# Entry
Amino acid sequence: MLKFIGALCILFSSVIFGFVWQERFERRVREIRYLRHVLKWMESEIVFRKLPLLNICQKIKKEAPYPFDHFFDSLQEDLQKGEEDLASIWLNNVMRYEKKWALKKEEIWLFKDIGQTLGKFNRTEQGKQFALTQLHLEEQENEAFLEKQQLKQLGVRVSLLFGLLFIILLI
# Structure
């Protein structure tokens, strides 16, 4: 009876591990979509409403989900201090928070790159930079979605099989 309960616990924990592994792929797609949304929002605020980045960060952090809310909060605080230029503040904040995101290197690079171009061009050129970044992020989102679809059930199935293998080895 005790072996049976132990086997069920092992099986249950291995399936839970599979769901957690699968969530990472879903989270990446959500974060890319949110990143595209934020960049579109920033573009409209900068190009059309002509708001400063400090005010934009204040608006975004109120509505942003975790961990992006912390990123924009930290960005706003660093901009208020005014000790560094915008490009280095953006880069430092991205590097500080990139471990909390499910984004891959390509998406992180695009996010770093948009920070390097902020404030260095006129509004028209800035709009073109945002559009180009949006295009690249759309490609990354499609790639992430396809990867999620391919690996959707694989994580749960593989973890279930490893759980069964581990139970067989213990018995």
About this structure: DSSP finds seven helices and no strands in the chain.
